Amino acid sequence: MSDSERQPLLPDGVKKKTPLPWLQLFILLWVQLAEPITSQVIYPFVNKLVSELPITGGDPSKVGYYAGLIESLFFVTEACTVLYWSSLSDRVGRRPILLTGLFGLTLSMVAFGLARSFTSVVIARCLAGLLNGNVGVIKSMMGELTDETNIAQGMALMPVVWSTGAIVGPMIGGWLSSPAEQYPNSFFARVQFFTDYPYALPCFVVAAYCATAWLFTFVYLKETVTLRPGAPGAQQAPRPSIKTVLIPRLMIAVANYSLIAFLDMSLRALQPLFYTSPIALGGLALGPSIVGSTLAAFGLFSGLWQAFAFSPIYERLGLKGVFVLSQSTFLGMFALFPLMSLAAQRVGHINAAVWTMLAAQGILYVIMDMGFSCALIYVRASAPSKHLLGATNGFAQTSISIVRSVGPALSNSLFAVTAEKHLMGGSFVYVFYIAITAGALYAATPLPKSLEGYVADREDDEESIETGRAES
Question: Could you give the CA distance from residue 320 to residue 453 in angstroms, rounded to a whole number?
Answer without folding.
Answer: 14
